[in-house]
Fold this sequence. Notes:
289 residues; 11 helices; RTA1-domain-containing protein
Amino acid sequence: MTGFKFxxxxxxxxxxxxxxxxxxxATIRHMQLMSKNKxxxxxxxxIGCLFETGGYIxxxxxxxxxxxxxLMPYIIQSLLTLLGPTFFAASIxxxxxxLIRYLEADAYSMIRPKWLTKxxxxxxxxxxxxxxxxxxxxxxxxSESSQSxxxxxxxxxxxxQVIFFGLFxxxxxxxxxxxxxxxxxxxxxxxxxxxxFIYVLYFTSLLIMVRSVFRMAEYAQGNDGSxxxxxxxxxVLDALLMLIVTACFALFHPSKVLRKEISFxxxxxxxxxxxxxxxxxxxxxxxxI
Length: 289
């Protein structure tokens, strides 16, 4: 293909190895947390971590091949680092829906919690397939026209992701404002740090949004754009931001808030108020499960 190059620079082997290692550590840590706390709903996040790890391993292989790059490592690193954050986004969508239900504040959500996660996951799925299809077409392009088509499809996928993520942030802000002005009874009595957790959602959502906008600008410029010609942009505005997202959820894991749904936070109080300790605790247990 005329004028096409896998990279416009010599990829850094050291940087690829470092990010492969740290994402691997993040994957192991999140697997430990999921297993320990039984937060199986957070599995998409771990898949995202695996994608990032695999992407930077493939990039390290590409770096070792410089300047005689082969197609397969290039395709793998392109697709996995492009698609990994869609799984992070999916997990964040599910967390908000669970938080709303946990706080018994369904009426405060712009979208009914029953449909909230499904609605945003639909956007995530559309974005995933568009980015994946465009990335596959771009990586195997044999003409400038197919390269241009691949770029446009990826842009469409990233655009879908940005639109749905923007809507998600609006839904989160509106919910936060409403529950702050008129707290639900559960939000006043629960011991979980749900308020702080909402700010974690804000921060990580912003990082994913910035990364997605960067990717849109990168593909909008095309293969000869300045963003694709400087490797530092990819590490600072993509890899590093996604690493911070994984670190945030490792430090402030959803189990610190949502696990309380099955850990009976008010059990001791119930036992004190009731003379029938056994029946009360069992009744609360079945009701919550």
